[in-house]
Write a structure and sequence with these properties.
The complex is a heterotetramer. Chain A is of the alpha/beta class. In chain A, 41% of the residues lie in helices and 16% in strands. Chain B has one domain. In chain B, strand 1 and strand 2 form a beta hairpin. The chains are: A alpha/beta, B mainly alpha, C alpha/beta, D mainly alpha.
Chain lengths: 222, 290, 232, 333
């Protein structure tokens, strides 16, 4: 799925990843998060080779992932969902974790839903919950897999605002998204990939304007 | 010579185990279902044969013609009415429902036939043997069992490898959703697989009943032997199932020769050893697991 | 004559609504394309038509008969067949066997295994190999061929170009022309706009589960498509 | 804004009161001198603990074992070896037998954790058979005939019965309290996350393998202790009885009928089990047929079990493991 892909993210940097369906974007995130092992190559985090580290340990080390299809813990409340991230991924005791949970809930606009069973949430709320849980793990880098997919326009804008907010707090971000205007407004850099390889890497406007990306991504001949 | 005899007996016993294992392997292959009542259905078939022999005066081998279709119908109905409704709800319901059926069948048989042990008598063939020279002899009946096992496996191999239904089995096993888009009715196919599974295990049950005595509670051990043969041979390989059965059979006869109490235990230990050393079995088809 | 008539079709995944009142028509012999960005509901739409999602009976009419919510095998019998997204080749089956599964309950018609081999010679050459040993483009040929083996009146094709190089995509669309020439009606979903505009008589653009734009390709400018795609 | 977490419900405060009364009643029971009733209570507690342990495995960790009789039998035999052969006080040997079972569960897990799902179920059963046959072939353990616990012979019958009863009450209360506290803890939170989605759990830092292993070992300890308790009560052990699949069958039927995945379910299930047994005492195997049929019916139509139906209808939770949050605006400065 991936073919000698290289991708680097600096501390506090936000990078967007685009590419057509099947280009290997989700695979790339899963390799970074430790959910898939690369056949060759390495994942280095904070100067340390973490290629052999399992997913749960990477989360504890500061790499958090939100899934494209939200997997809430359906029988648990929204608050408990976030608490899992804060206590296990964030490595805090339950009492110490409460404040961080509240912050994550408030930041994602879910505070009023804290006692709701996660299985009954709407799609937007599920996406917000993915984000809230990931934030509660106190990540240094946040991997977002199509978190805006399937949302209405105002919902996308609201989510972008949250992500800009997270970024302002110094969390590095890698964001896969098809909704290009959402990406453009939140990232420093865009990487376009196709056939598991990096096609273009640079400032968002330059990448989007390049004929190569227009052709591959939109399929529109310029 | 005595050792050679032990091994030959074990190989032939393996044929019987392969008969038990085939149906289990089939239902797992097609729909990822492990029927925990598999062994009990074989014993149920043997008891139906007992009734047929007593009331109709049939030879047990002729009773096959009656019992096998009956068990196939039971399998079809079981899958359609009960098990199909549990698929897609995770692993727990199917495991627990078939386990519940296992206990219900055992106690039903106990109630109907008491705890006495039974045996099917086909009139002589079970004791006749074929001398091979050098003091070595093999029983005609174990030989027949082994031959039937091989023939059934060849037949199944052809059915699965060459026929339209067989292709549908494999397609559904790979990806039931896409198979449905091609016009394959998964529910009907699953019911066919269970019918086939119980038909084969009915043969196994009657052969067991001719070979040795059985009681209402003989089922669970047969399930374990079948399971072990499948795992030793490797999932998804019919010939592996035969080899798995043979290895288990040889382990049991060899162990029993060392000490009478060690037969079944040696079989279990060989199974655990294979699991430890080659978790995917000896002849597993490499299968992509997503 | 209208072969497929869709009226006010809505579809849900659990409590998530993916389609909002879609209406669409396909005439016999026509090629219609559905385009739109990821997540616009194109694949959901095809799956709803093919019986993989529950929909109200009256929402879909095929050949004048209401068929919404019927199971896939019943729709295959009527001649409505889906070539699914991502090709979904059966890994345990050879190329030939994959094609034969397509004919599991085939209707009479022009498509036989030999006819498919003539359309895609590479499939004939590699007929005994496992279907998943083929390259992505060849697998897409196999998926189309498998769908044709049912002799459909309407073939639904989901995103032919997924993960394929432009030249390969061009060849696949050329093959679709041959399918069309046999009289098969086509409803094609695609992200790759350029190819689709060349083969389709009419185009529907989906955005967020609803029809945002509809018309003949000649009347759709790049700006209008882009606007309908992204809502900018 | 500030956040306060509420972990009790009105039902749980009522339940706590009721539980205190119930335990007080259990403690007082020996003074009535009703030995028959005491034996029923011991049996009840034994099945209840077995059910709680299996519920933890299957209902929370997704480990559908049908080989828990392995740990029951090992606990029983460990009691006899510890007390008769090694001279350990037989009452002290009960929890130690649980430790022996947990100790053997570790290498067993190395084998059976290679299986997933339905194969795990049959695999655990095969391993239980191995333990049974190993013991049935060991001369020092009495082979197929088994052994008798002799260490308690010097004690007066009444003393033995009362101490056994006391141990049963302690084991029962401790098991429920331990499972309850475990489920309410940070580890229990992780376990419930694993139950709902393994994939999301590992993305949030939960070590799925360790979580499951911990539950497996805990269940082996609880089941082994119960096995020791059962044979401290019965005094005679044999491999066929101690490693009988029927133990697991009872356990599974209790949990499935009562309601899987809740603490209350196994309690309700055990009560139903004993009521049915009283009703059908004279009908032998019909009792098992009825139980099995009920369990099949429950699994098909009411997978949440009896307690699930009650809890849904009246929103009752006597053992709440969830956390209710109260958000307060800070008072104006």
């Amino acid at each position: 799925m991936l073919d000698r892909l290289s991708l680097a993210v600096d501390e506090r940097e936000a990078v967007g990843v685009i590419g057509p369906n099947g280009a290997g974007k989700t695979t790339a995130l899963n390799v970074m998060a430790g959910r898939l092992r690369p056949d060759r190559g390495a994942v280095v985090f904070d100067g340390r080779d973490v290629t052999a580290m399992p997913a749960h340990a990477r989360c504890r080390a500061g790499i958090a992932l939100t899934h494209q299809i939200p997997h809430p813990f359906e029988a648990m409340t929204v608050f408990e969902n976030v608490l899992v991230g804060a206590t296990h991924g964030g490595g805090r005791t339950e009492r110490d974790a409460y404040a961080g949970c509240l912050a994550a809930l408030e930041q994602t606009g879910l505070a009023a839903r804290a006692n709701t069973r996660a299985g009954t949430l709407t799609l937007l709320e599920r996406k917000r919950l993915e984000l809230a849980r990931a934030l509660a793990t106190r990540p240094r880098v946040l991997l977002l897999d199509e978190i805006a997919g399937g949302l209405t326009e105002p919902e996308v804008l609201a989510l972008v605002a949250v992500i800009r907010d997270v970024r302002a707090e110094g969390v590095a971000i890698v964001w896969i998204e098809h909704i290009v205007h959402a990406l453009r407004s939140a990232v420093d850099r865009l990487v376009a990939i196709d056939f598991g390889r990096s096609l273009m890497d640079g400032p968002p406007d330059a990448v989007m304007a390049s004929p190569e990306v227009q052709r591959v991504y939109l399929g529109i001949e310029p | 010579m005595a050792w050679l005899d032990t091994i030959v007996q074990g190989i032939l016993l393996g044929g019987l185990y392969a008969l038990f294992a085939t149906g289990l392997s089939l239902t797992f292959g097609v729909m990822r279902l492990v029927n925990l009542a598999h062994g009990d259905f074989s014993i149920l078939a043997a008891f139906i044969a007992v009734v047929a022999v007593q009331t109709l005066g049939l030879n047990p081998l002729l009773a096959l013609a009656l019992v096998v279709p009956v068990m196939a119908a039971v399998g079809y109905g079981l899958q359609r009415l009960v098990l199909n409704r549990l698929l897609g709800r995770g692993i727990l319901p199917a495991v627990l429902v078939t386990f519940g059926l296992s206990i219900v069948i055992q106690n039903g048989l106990l109630e109907a036939f008491s705890a006495d042990s039974r045996r099917l008598n086909p009139g002589g063939i079970e004791t006749a043997s074929l001398p091979l020279g050098g003091g070595l002899a093999v029983g005609w009946f174990p030989l027949l069992t082994f031959a039937v096992a091989v023939l059934l496996l060849v037949g199944l191999q052809i059915l699965i490898g060459r026929s339209a239904v067989g292709r549908a089995f494999r397609a559904t096993s790979d990806d039931g959703g896409t198979a449905a888009l091609m016009g394959i009715d998964n529910d009907r196919l699953y019911a066919l697989a269970m019918a086939l599974s119980l038909a084969v295990v009915a043969i196994a049950g009657i052969f067991l009943g001719i070979r040795t005595t059985f009681t209402f509670s003989s089922g669970p051990d047969r399930l374990l032997f079948a399971f072990e043969a499948v795992i030793i041979g490797g999932l998804g390989s019919l010939w592996g199932t035969l080899v798995g059965g043979v290895i288990l059979g040889v382990a049991q006869t060899t162990g029993a020769r060392v000490s009478p109490g060690w037969g079944v235990l040696t079989g279990h230990l060989v199974f655990l050893a294979v699991l430890l050393l080659r978790p995917s079995g000896l002849f597993a088809k490499s299968r992509r697991v997503d | 004559m209208t072969l497929l008539r869709v009226r006010e079709l809505s579809a849900f995944y659990g409590d998530f609504q993916a389609l909002f009142g879609i209406s669409l028509d396909v005439a016999e012999g026509e090629t219609v394309a559905v385009i739109g960005a990821n997540g616009a509901g194109k694949t959901t739409f095809l799956r709803a038509l093919a019986g993989a999602l529950p929909v109200p009976e009256s929402a879909v009419a095929f050949d004048g008969r209401p068929v919404g919510g019927r199971p896939s095998p019943a729709l295959v019998d009527l001649g409505l067949v889906l070539v699914p997204e991502g090709r979904k080749i059966f890994p345990s089956l050879s190329v030939r066997e994959n094609l034969l599964v397509g004919a599991y309950r085939a209707r009479p018609g022009p498509w036989t295994i030999e006819r498919v081999y003539r359309l895609f010679p590479i499939l004939g050459e590699r007929r005994e190999q496992p279907g998943t040993n083929l390259s992505g483009g060849e697998q897409q040929m196999l998926a189309i061929g498998r769908g044709l083996m049912a002799n459909p009146r309407l073939l639904l094709v989901d995103e032919i170009s997924l993960g394929l190089a432009p030249l390969v995509v061009k060849n696949l669309y050329r093959a679709l022309e041959a399918v069309k020439a046999e009289g098969t009606t086509l409803l094609v979903v695609e992200q790759d706009v350029s190819q689709v505009l060349a083969v389709a008589q009419r185009v529907y653009c989906f955005r967020k589960g609803a029809v945002a734009l509809e018309g003949a390709p000649a009347r759709l400018t790049r700006e209008r498509i882009s606007a309908a795609y992204f809502g900018t | 804004m500030t956040l306060a977490v509420e972990r009790t419900t009105r039902a749980s405060r009522f339940g706590a009161g009721a539980a205190v009364l119930l335990v007080a009643g259990l403690v007082a029971l020996p003074w009535t001198g009703d030995a028959g009733l005491m034996r029923v209570v011991i049996e009840f507690i034994a099945l209840l603990v077995l059910a709680q342990m299996w519920n933890l495995l299957a209902g929370y960790a997704g480990l559908v074992s049908i080989g828990q009789q392995a740990y029951l039998g090992l606990g029983g035999y460990a009691l006899i070896v510890l007390a008769d052969d090694l001279g350990v006080n037989p009452f002290l040997a009960v929890p130690l037998a649980g430790l022996v079972a947990a100790g053997l569960a570790l290498p067993t897990a190395a084998l059976v954790f290679r299986f997933r799902d339905a194969y795990f179920a049959v695999g655990t059963w095969a391993v239980a058979e191995v333990y049974r046959l190993l013991i049935a072939n060991t001369g020092a353990l009495g082979r197929g005939t088994g052994r008798t616990l002799k260490a308690v012979f010097p004690l007066a019958r009444e003393t033995r019965e009362q101490v056994t009863y006391a141990i049963a009450v302690v084991v029962g209360v401790a098991a429920i309290v331990a499972v309850y506290l475990y489920l309410r803890s940070r580890l229990g939170l992780g376990l419930m996350a694993v139950r709902d989605s393994e994939s999301a759990s590992e993305s949030l830092g939960v070590d799925v393998f360790r979580t499951k292993l911990a539950v497996y070992l805990l269940a082996a300890f609880g089941t082994g202790t119960t096995g020791a308790l059962i044979y401290l009560n019965l005094l005679r052990i044999s491999p066929d009885a101690a490693f009988s699949i029927n133990w697991t069958a009872y356990t599974i039927f209790i949990v499935v009928i009562g309601g899987i995945g809740t603490l209350e379910g196994p309690i309700v299930g055990t009560v139903v089990f004993f009521l049915l047994r009283e009703l059908l005492a004279d009908h032998g195997s019909w009792y098992m047929i009825l139980l099995g049929a009920l369990a099949v019916l429950a699994m098909m139509r009411y997978p949440q079990g009896l307690w699930g139906l009650v809890a849904e209808r009246w929103d009752l939770r006597f053992f709440p493991v969830q956390r209710r949050v109260r958000l307060d605006e800070p008072p104006p400065a």
